[in-house]
Fold each of these.
Amino acid sequence: MPAGTLGYLDPEFYHTSQLSEKSDVYRVVLLELITGQSPAIPISNTESIHISLWVRQKLSEGDITSIADPRMGGDYDVNSVWKVAELALQCKEEPSRKRPTMTDIVVELKECLELEVLHAMSCYSSVPSSANNLSGTSVDMHGEASDYPRQ
């Protein structure tokens, strides 16, 4: 019997008591990353809603900015955040055979990362060079900064 916190276990498991290769927590973790919220979002003093239902509702209203973690300060590619949210919701599909594989998820996340890198580069290139304090730093695709010799 798997152990886990409510909101992290595969919802299909509750009905079938069967785990599959697509029974993972990725859907909730992705939603937590982009929203900065816990799996249970309070909607009143006595009620809460699961993060996936909350995100699905906001997306159906076309409201991506209200789900993005405010600590990002609006500094993100809207298409990337939207794509991650939709990907996370696809990971919650029932039955599990409709969910993407982990390979599909990795491919999609890499595309989102590319959008974020392009967004960061466009923001970086729009800063006047006199205000640019990162001139000796590069960022690789893993988000790690490194110094390189200027030429």
Amino acid sequence: GAPNVSTATAVREQHGHDESMHPCAPPDAVVWPQAVGQVQELAALCHRCRVPMVPFGTGTGLEGGVNAVQGGVCFDLSRMDAITELSLEDFSVTVEPGVTRKALNKHLRGTGLWFPVGTVGIRGAMGLGLAALWLLGMPVGLGML
């Protein structure tokens, strides 16, 4: 519905660029799914209709990965921000894609663990942060303080 979908120019332009030098390439629409089932349904619909999908985390990437150069639908995953499981024993955490490194480290405060900036997973997905790791099905590892 309306609070979870936008075709407003300002919203589309906000989601059509990151911190790179590439010019803005806005999507045709922006959606804010709030559950895995919604992501699956939206992805299936886009696939059936041959509409490009562009995942959006925080827009801080440096490569232009959020630019919708062929239009399409931008999946803003920021509302999926739950930390669902934390294992202090094996240094792992399960998060939804909207969880930022800052939010994760706030949650970890007092445990002796932290999520560093320079991990291999995060370096490979700077523009999307934890959202990209989630979409790719990659585990999130933690470090000790």
Amino acid sequence: LFCPCLIYGAYIFLPFDAPLLPTVSARLVYTLRCAAFATFPIVLGMIVSGISRLCSSALEPFGELHREMEIHRTYVSQSIHLFILYFFNMAVLATYLPPELLKLIPLLTGLFAISRLIFWMSYAIGRSFRAFGFSMTFLPLLAMLLWNLYGMFVLEPENLLS
């Protein structure tokens, strides 16, 4: 319930508009530019993971990982997988959205980045607290997937394979 309210509030109250993008290729470039900002939590996780591995007192660099290093490695791995799903869903979503709703692309990008950071912090606190951050990432992805399937099969079934 938190994610739709957050997206709706940001859509209404943030003072920016998406540019007019009449062609599909322009929309995909816009989505690619927005998706570049969604990689920030992943890159930050890689940096922190490398620093924690560098600063560990382990004599064997490929040996058993400490809990702190395991948290960062797991976070980066899961974030990369979710980013791939996010990016492909956003690319398809950008083709089906009406021009006045393209403001959702950067808002969903910001939600993805913030939710991954919340997941990382809650995962470091304890494994039982990470459900909130994961649901803030996964449920918008699921909503995008359902909208994309609706757009492909109901709104434009004649253009499904073209």
